[in-house]
Design goal:
It is a single chain. By secondary structure, the protein is α+β, with helices and mostly antiparallel strands. It is 39% helix and 15% strand. It has six helices and four strands; from the N terminus they run ααβααβαβαβ. A four-stranded antiparallel β-sheet has the order 1-2-4-3. Helix 2 packs across helix 5. The two termini are 29 Å apart. The protein binds flavin mononucleotide. The site of flavin mononucleotide has 8 residues, from strand 3. Flavin mononucleotide (FMN) binds next to strand 3.
């Protein structure tokens, strides 16, 4: 698959078949993820692969937190647990991704950016291998019970959970507005030409 095809045709997939995702597919996605740029080669990404039956461990950790720690009414807690459980079992594999915080704010920000870049590599690779995926965010990945069951180191922040599997949804039209709406070519006055003195492109 051409890079541009992968970039433009990747889509967030929300409905998956029950078909398990082969380990080799997950490994290819993770292999691609770690090629993301990362300042000072901090390699800040931490991946927690939650396949098939391991989803039960995640669901139970969520239920424990909701039931014990959140002080909700019984009915509210039950509804919350059911909702999260449905969510967790909506894809055959989840990869929870955390970023190392580093020792200062600048590093934390750079590490977070690098981990986001890794996630995009992962999503594009899944798509190129014929798998659907979606980047989701949720408070559950910071629940102490969840961090404990996944064995996430304390010095990390959750960046996303990638749900991955074979798509079972019809194609949804996607749109992006042209980059020109968000782009300023500083110091340029022409259009689509090359500056004679510097050789730099002009809009
Ligand atoms: C940081 C981040 C967090 C996201 N969190 C969620 C989420 O919690 N739930 C969800 O349905 N989609 C989530 N998405 C997916 C976006 O909604 C999706 O990328 C957007 O709708 C564009 O669709 P596309 O990916 O098909 O182009 C998230 C995307 C990013 C980058």
């Amino acid at each position: 698959m051409q890079l541009n095809d992968a970039i433009q045709n990747r889509a967030s997939i929300k409905v998956f078949s029950d078909e398990a995702v082969p380990v080799t597919v997950i490994e290819s996605c993770l292999d691609a993820a770690v090629w993301a740029p990362n300042h000072h080669l901090t390699e800040p990404w931490r991946f927690f692969v939650i396949p098939d039956e391991a989803r039960e461990l995640l669901a139970q950790a969520v239920a424990t937190h909701v039931n014990i720690a959140r002080g909700l009414e019984w009915a509210q807690a039950k509804a919350q647990v059911i909702k999260e459980r449905k969510h967790i079992f909506s894809a055959p594999t989840i990869i929870a991704i955390y970023s190392d915080m580093g020792t200062d704010q600048k590093t934390e920000k750079e590490n977070l950016c690098a981990t986001a870049a890794a996630i995009q590599n992962l999503l594009l690779t899944a798509h190129s291998l014929g798998y659907g995926a979606i980047w989701r965010t949720s408070d559950i990945y910071d629940y102490p019970t969840v961090r404990q069951v996944l064995q996430v180191p304390p010095s990390t922040i959750p960046v996303g959970a990638i749900f991955i599997g074979k798509s079972a949804q019809r194609e949804v039209p996607r749109r992006r507005r042209p980059h020109a709406l968000f782009t300023t070519w500083v110091g340029a006055s022409g259009s689509g030409t090359t500056d004679e003195t510097t050789g730099a492109g002009k809009p």
